[in-house]
Amino acid sequence: MQDQLLTYLGEALVHGSLTDEVLLAETETHPVLPILPNANVIKIGGQSLIDRGRAAVFPLLDELVGNLAHHQMIIGTGAGTRARHAYSVGLDLGMPTGVLSILGTFVSMQNARMLHYLLAKHGIPFVEPVQFPQLPFYLEERRAVIFFGMPPYVFWQPNPAVGRIPPNRTDTGTYLVSEVFGARSMIYVKDEDGLYTADPKKDPKAKFIPHITVEELEALDLADVVVEHSVLALMKHAQHRRSIQVINGLKPGTLSLALNGEHVGTIITV
């Protein structure tokens, strides 16, 4: 292209270095477009909800269906206990982090497909990453979609600071969808009321935390955190999704309250 057809920034990017921090700072001049600002991203926990079977899953699905008329929903699934079993076998066989990420991806996909079949009569489709360009159509026509929450890093999954378990799992994958598309909310559906100072299943003295910032949470240095640490790291540089909400999906009506903007569970902000 001739230089006169380029903006100042365009010319700088063509002729400059993409490692130049001054140039990179200039790329933030224009605000980022929220692509799906009316959509709500909902992550349904694998171990906390799906692994519990019919008693936990069916009431939650009924609540999702009841909200179709009022809310657009992008529903991601966790991997749960079966992924942990796969990780343990993979680790024993000496598999690297990238291969373990593939194993976790397929378990998350199994859970997504199960929920899809249960919701098929309502016309809610299952989508893979390659189908994400069709999200606006699906949300406009069917009001909801199901996808597997594991982000598609697969072989390109970065190694964690400690151990070999993939650091970017289903909490991270669903969060990234909410951030990239500029979604209205990011709701994590777990089997606990939200964030506690310790695992409430193991420590009866654990205290509930209704609201906290990422900085405050990191300062607490808790041994057990209700979402993946990768999510908190990503939130620090977020352009859209600067808060997340963690709720108890075993309590009927809680998801509806969260979708309606009520402060239930724990809200973590930047």
Tags for this entry?
single chain; 270 residues; alpha/beta; Carbamate kinase; 2 domains; seven-stranded mixed β-sheet; two-stranded antiparallel ribbon; 9 strands; 37% helix
What does this structure look like?
By secondary structure, the chain is an alpha/beta fold. The chain folds into two domains: about 30 residues, no CATH class; about 240 residues, Acetylglutamate kinase-like (Carbamate kinase), CATH 3.40.1160. The protein has ten helices and nine strands. A seven-stranded mixed beta sheet has the order 3-2-1-4-8-9-7. It has a two-stranded antiparallel sheet with strand order 5-6. Helix 4 packs antiparallel against helix 5. The longest helix is centred in the middle third of the chain and has 23 residues. The relative contact order is 0.15. The mean pLDDT is about 95.
Outline of the structure:
This protein is an alpha/beta fold. The protein contains 10 helices and 9 strands.
